[in-house]
Amino acid sequence: MTTNYTSESKKRNGEHILINMTYVAKNIGLDSGVELTRALEYWRRYFEDNRIVSALVISEGYFVQSFQGTRPAINTALEKILDKHSAISPNIVNIYEIESRQWNGFLVKHLTSNAEDEDYALKSFSAGSDYNPYLMTSTQIESFLTAVFGDSNFSKF
């Protein structure tokens, strides 16, 4: 039996509410090569299939990711992340409702030790002399993501 979801039943499940969730994590389970590339491709497809947009920064073994979608989609994605990638030990920075999606697709930026990336990571947003997003406030993390993806030096994975 096929169930038809009316707009009223969708509202009961929260599909009309958009959520932004941001987390930081330490990459302790994935290598930086093929295994990481496969994981990124899996999540790109998963997010695309579930109409979730994302901005992900990878640097010095850390992940900083913001993703946006409907409340049920974000809850399911978080559950999958915790189940599939428990080794990264994500720490949720914030979850809040939004009016519209900020990101466009599945955006990925690998920060390196070049001068431009160090400006992003260390001078403007880090809480110390070393890059460690666990020490950043939620406001610093949001500003960091906006600064990183505010220019054209990123890749749409």
UniProtKB/TrEMBL annotation:
It holds the Pfam family BLUF. One of its GO terms (molecular function) is FAD binding. It comes from the Bacteria. Residues 18-109 form the BLUF domain. PROSITE patterns: BLUF (PS50925). InterPro entries: Acylphosphatase-like_dom_sf (IPR036046), BLUF_domain (IPR007024). This is BLUF domain-containing protein. It comes from Psychrobacter halodurans.
